[in-house]
Amino acid sequence: MTDLSRAAVRDAVGYFDSWLAFRQRYSRIPGVQAAVLHGDEILLSAAYGHADVEAGVELTPRHLFRIASHSKTFTATAVLQLAEQGTLRLDDAARRWLPFLDGAPLSSVTVRELLGHSGGVVRDGHDGDFWQLYREFPDEATLRKIATDGADIIPPNERFKYSNIGYSLLGSIIAAASGQDYNTYVRRHIVDRLSLADTGPEYDPARAGEYARGYTSLAYADRRIPVDHVDTAAMSAATGFYSTAQDAVRYFSAHFHGDDRLLSDASKRLMQRAEWQVDGSDGEYGLGLDRAEIGGRRVFGHGGGYPGHITKTYFDPEAKLAVSVLTNAIDGPAEPLASGLIRMVNLAVESSGGNGDERRSDVDLDRFTGRFATMWGVQDVVRLGRRLYLFRPVADDPTQPTTKLDVVDDSTLRVVGGIGFGSYGETVRYEFSGAEVVSVRGGSATTAYPIERITAAVATQERVSVGDPLR
Fold it and tell me: What is the pTM of this model?
């Protein structure tokens, strides 16, 4: 599934924007920043919530986020650039570039094994509490100590074994091979080449006021507290980068097929080829890139987990689609939100292929759309292509179960599909005042109202009683 019409993507993005705004509030996430790119056009660059809750600073598309393990894609890109130039080889042993590894178990681990998390290297050393800010991230001397102190956990190529230490060593290899420190190399040869003004390899104190504040989780407390930004030191190649959602999708657009700004297509396909099935998931990993199949669409990208920020970006290199979602909470649902856009696009493409409800082409489908609420919850009537759907915006995947709505007349729909416990075959009847929806009687024959009306009622009513309903 590759071909995408701009109209289908715009339909999906239109709902995605509304859904993200709802999910930010519903999930009690301090802030969500998102961007969608198709072809060479940014179709969405938006932000919801707050960059700083305590100070009341609203989040904008220009606020900076720590995108953490997205850094690995920059590192892999840099390695493949050096390989294309003949400066290093993917089968070079690590000791060729890092003499301090001579005699250590990791000395023979290859560059390619480090890129694909195939080297059996310890994930974060034997004391990873820098992730909780108990102390600073490892400097170069500490990284060398970690790499030579029982860092060989399993034999190379036994299985996929994710390693931040392995990618930190790749940063040192890039520095040794290029003659430039890692941060300088990736800035000059990747960030500046793409004119990514809001992207960098490490925390920039000069821009401290531009970062979205990170926050702790609600899993262990009833409130979130701020988390300070810190420098990741010798681990920037694994987790140091900052960016915005808009810059992130622009960066990944350089990994679309046919784009030669950073790498040849041959190198990009090498990065995107599966090296491993990731145990315990449906995903795979290439060289610095996640691989996933979402609704039949093959996508690539990476996630990032940094103290206070959780982020995710996906891209389809053939259809030239990219989506990035950045959250400033350590339990932020960036992955399901980003994959939600892919699922919406897939459904919009399916709904644009002539299989819509063409029996009533005289009726404007958009008149039925909106967000409606009952005491039981919220439902969205959404147009994608030539079809109307009933979505549950509280769900991680609102497109499932797929509930289609056929047009009966200019004020009536019929439920088609959905789960067996739903209202299959029943009607959804609208009351209009001019072009505005007053109410909708649908599932379980209950009356729903535009969500603003129910929200206002909750703000003023003390209780719900028979004869005094929430409305």
Answer: 0.96
